[in-house]
Amino acid sequence: MDKFTPFSFVFMAAIISVTMFSSFSTVNGDDRKVHIVYMGSLTEEQPEYSPTSLHLSILQEVLGDGISPANSLVRSYKRSINGFAAKLTDRERQNLALKKGVVSVFPSRILHPQTTRSWDFMGLTEKAKREPAVESDTIIGVIDTGIWPESESFTDEGFGPPPKKWKGACRGGRNFTCNNKLIGARYYLPEINSTRDIVGHGTHTASTAAGNNVNNANFYGIAQGIARGGVPSARIAAYAVCDVNGCTDVAILAAFDDAIADGVDIITVSLGSMFSVDIKEDSIAIGSFHAMERGILTINSAGNSGPYSSSVSSVAPWLLTVAANTIDRRIIDKVVLGNGKTLIGNSVNSFKSNGKKVPIVFGKSASRSCLESSAQSCDENCVDKELAKGKIVVCTESSGAKVALAAGAVGSITVTDIVSNVSFVEPFPVSAINSKGFVLLLSYLNSTKNPRAEILKSEAVNDTAAPRVAEFSSRGPNSIIPEILKPDLSAPGSTKYNILSGTSMSCPHVAGIAAYVKTFHPDWSPSAIKSAIMTTAHPMNIKDGVFASGAGHVNPLGAIHPGLVYNASKEDYIQLLCNFGYNTTTVRSISGDNSTCPKAPKKSSLKDHNYPALAARVLPSKAFKIKFNRTVTNVGRANSTYKVKVLANSKLNITVAPEVLSFKSLKEKQSFVVTVVGGKIKKDNTVLSSFLVWSDGTHRVRSPIVVHIDSGEW
Ligand SMILES: *[C@@H]1O[C@H](CO)[C@@H](O)[C@H](O)[C@H]1NC(C)=O
Ligand SMILES: *[C@@H]1O[C@H](CO)[C@@H](O)[C@H](O)[C@H]1NC(C)=O
Ligand SMILES: *[C@@H]1O[C@H](CO)[C@@H](O)[C@H](O)[C@H]1NC(C)=O
Ligand SMILES: *[C@@H]1O[C@H](CO)[C@@H](O)[C@H](O)[C@H]1NC(C)=O
Ligand SMILES: *[C@@H]1O[C@H](CO)[C@@H](O)[C@H](O)[C@H]1NC(C)=O
Ligand SMILES: *[C@@H]1O[C@H](CO)[C@@H](O)[C@H](O)[C@H]1NC(C)=O
Ligand SMILES: *[C@@H]1O[C@H](CO)[C@@H](O)[C@H](O)[C@H]1NC(C)=O
Ligand SMILES: *[C@@H]1O[C@H](CO)[C@@H](O)[C@H](O)[C@H]1NC(C)=O
Ligand SMILES: *[C@@H]1O[C@H](CO)[C@@H](O)[C@H](O)[C@H]1NC(C)=O
Ligand SMILES: *[C@@H]1O[C@H](CO)[C@@H](O)[C@H](O)[C@H]1NC(C)=O
Ligand SMILES: *[C@@H]1O[C@H](CO)[C@@H](O)[C@H](O)[C@H]1NC(C)=O
Question: Which GO terms describe its molecular function (predicted)?
């Protein structure tokens, strides 16, 4: 259980201890745990073919005496994906894995949700060019904590009936109605039996991707403006897979099974785990593969486990994985000290100061009963009422604010350098300052007998350093397939509507952009849309590095005119799975066709997968020469000539052949080879990067190049 941690602080507030829901049961003394039995693609279309009876008969073959398959079966996947979830013992799991047609058997994990100047900041203003008729036929599937149907973001004024292609349903549960904006709802947790969002997370991701314009959205009077989604005319289908305890793989796969069959165009999934797992044991990777097969791109958040290396849990090449960055609107709250100095805090304080400074005391000096370390963090029962009453109490832990309040403090200052920690809203004035400010504060407290301070109400300021990748945003490299760069790109992780941040919010931003691109290019493949968004992204601060920001900061207007795309078909992804090491049997189950893998996996070909980024891993202390083969498809002007440029890196010699690509027609393809040569580098975990840019004078088609010096042992 401790493998998974909450990915959003919305959840941090809600989850103190994560409890396992009814995923265990004991039958005949054996522990049975819910597993997913993944059987690949659903290809049989004969009317007599019944996936559920097939699933029950496979189960029957492995279950111990006296256990009925119907009691073991938790759920059958049968609309878009073949497989089922069942309660199994270890032995039954092992036996099932050997059955013909079974690709993988894996335990259902608990995943977590990762938690609007933002659209203006990205350049997609209210006045941007749009295709309203097509946009209104676009459906975004939101796999999340559900949705609040009465939210202003989802009213259906001006919307006609759902698009003809819609095959879904409104099964939101008790007291839940859909409308012509929110056209579909389904839930998957028997503990709740509702699509109503009691957490708030899914409502925010849905409104970020496709919410209506809502005037005067604000948060306690700070950061006023219009809240809106990327494609306000698009329709929404909500799939509830989480409750306050988290989300299960069983539910997530079921949601993909339905969303694909329901006919959504884009799927957004702001969920994930702390660690990456093999693709055939990852419900989001499996579900999104089958979505890709049907032409649906899935957007997934990178995770909130940064800034640590390899913390990105979204690794599949057909997913568009999004990191979180800051935007130019930042919420600050100032602390003014008695000596006139001002410290900048990052929390949200909605309380107006009366202009008076009050006494301020460090937790350490406001405790008579606790050891120094507990006293300075303001642990439970440590803050002395007589010493704290009427004062601002300084605590080194954010949890101390509540303790200070209980002891009669009138404000609290906490210390954190982790930006994702600071938006907790408390019922009294709180400021979260960084460790540099803390040193200044301590020296002030030391310098005077009667220190005083005032916490000002939060204000929105212009952060000119934006966009920078957020500290909490999960980083690459990809620990499963190092040749596939992850995260793919970066988008704003915060919204002005509710000031939630986290990679959760960056994901629906990109889902909105993907839908926007699709309204201009309805026939583009998921990988072409993904390529367009990646290759047009803006460069980000070099200090962030490509393992933090991928291809860069999204550029929605640019993404509709990429010039060239790195396209990939289902067959290309199948080839990649072969090269990764899956055999013909496994690959055929997944693809549902007659694909064949070469006898031995060709790991060396993984880097040649036609990805819009070029990544390779090499060992320390070895000179290297890496060749990447790529093919671009012309989607710009029929007659065009592109010339290559490579960003210099003193540690890499990069050549491209040919250096000029001439196109005569649209959809024409041209291949080229990028050769990257470097000398011996001793230092393990060194990241060398550059950018490859194809330009015809109008379009700039930009791809990151990254070589990771990695022994795998640091
Ligand atoms: C339905 O849910 C809404 C929102 O919680 C609530 O205000 C309303 O009273 C509910 N109606 C019924 C009939 O339960
Ligand atoms: C949810 O529905 C299922 C199936 O109808 C039922 O077994 C379960 O008890 C329900 N759960 C709740 C919390 O009502
Ligand atoms: C961040 O918040 C978590 C949860 O409240 C807490 O455990 C942790 O100590 C905080 N980290 C910092 C640096 O304040
Ligand atoms: C404040 O004073 C205490 C004891 O007098 C000392 O230990 C501490 O280092 C001082 N802190 C600062 C920031 O000057
Ligand atoms: C912040 O400043 C930049 C550069 O001066 C400007 O382009 C941008 O519009 C400003 N943002 C806000 C929210 O005022
Ligand atoms: C990309 O490949 C797919 C499948 O091979 C094809 O249908 C599509 O037309 C290609 N081009 C674009 C721009 O999507
Ligand atoms: C294919 O791989 C699976 C899983 O690794 C293995 O169980 C199976 O025996 C392999 N099949 C063949 C034909 O090698
Ligand atoms: C696979 O090949 C067999 C024999 O060549 C053929 O009968 C079958 O229809 C093919 N299946 C698919 C899914 O293409
Ligand atoms: C690169 O890939 C293309 C398309 O798969 C292929 O036609 C070409 O021969 C390859 N080039 C090299 C040098 O391997
Ligand atoms: C491309 O340019 C050539 C020569 O300049 C011209 O003959 C041809 O018609 C052009 N093709 C298109 C599609 O514009
Ligand atoms: C790059 O090429 C130049 C000229 O051939 C050579 O002097 C240099 O050592 C090379 N650098 C690397 C990192 O291989």
Answer: serine-type endopeptidase activity
| Residue in 77, 82, 75 with CA at minimum distance from that of residue 42 | 82
Mutate which of 116, 117, 330, 462 for ligand 5 pocket (most atoms within 8 A of beta carbon): 462
Residue with CA at minimum distance from ligand 5 atom 14: 462
| Sole residue written with tokens 């702390």 | 274
Pairing of strands 297-301, 266-269: parallel
Three-state DSSP at 407 gives coil
Cα 14 to averaged position of ligand 2 atoms, centre (Å): 23
**303-315 residue pLDDT tens:** 877 788 999 999 9
The response to whether residue 1 sits with its C-beta less than 6 Å from ligand 10 reads no
How far, CA to CA in Å, does 85 sit from each of 29, 36, 252, 273, 657? Answer: 21, 4, 12, 19, 50
Strand 329-337 to strand 459-462: parallel, antiparallel, or no bridges (unpaired)?
Answer: antiparallel
Residue with tokens 């070589």: 707
**What is the per-residue DSSP string for 158-182?**
T--SPPTT----B--BTT----SSE
State the Cα–Cα distance between residues 118 and 121, nearest whole angstrom.
Answer: 5
E strands within 541-685?
A: 564-565, 614-618, 624-634, 640-646, 653-657, 660-663, 669-678
Q: Helices marked H in 263-334 — which ranges? A: 283-293
Q: Closest ligand 3 atom to the C-alpha of 12?
A: 4
User: d(Cα 78, Cα 69) in Å, to the nearest integer?
Assistant: 17
Residues designated as active site: 144, 201, 504
Q: Is 585 in the pocket of ligand 7 (CB under 6 A)?
A: yes
Cis previous bond, 47, omega within 30: no
Tell me the residue type at 209. Answer: A
pLDDT digits (tens, 9 = 90+) for 419-456: 544 445 677 898 888 889 999 999 999 999 999 999 99
Cα–Cα distance for residue pair 498/483, rounded to 1 Å: 37
DSSP per-residue codes, 77-106? E-SSEEEEEEEE-HHHHHHHHTSTT--EEE
Sign of CA dihedral 380, 384, 385, 391: negative
The residue type found at 145 is: T
Tokens for 4, please give them. Answer: 């998974």
Look up residue 300 and give its amino acid: N
**Cβ count within 10 A of residue 83:** 27
Number of Cβ atoms within 10 Å of the Cβ of 674? 21
270 in Cβ contact with 113 (< 8 Å): yes
Q: What is the mean pLDDT of each run of 10 residues along the chain (714 residues)?
A: 29 25 42 93 72 92 89 94 95 94 92 65 81 93 95 94 97 95 96 89 90 67 66 96 88 97 97 89 96 97 84 96 82 90 84 90 94 94 95 92 94 77 66 91 94 91 81 88 97 53 78 97 98 97 92 96 98 96 92 90 95 97 98 97 97 98 98 97 96 97 98 85
Backbone phi and psi for residue 406, each to the nearest 5 degrees, phi listed first: -60, -30
What is the phi/psi pair of residue 676, to 5°? Answer: -115, 120
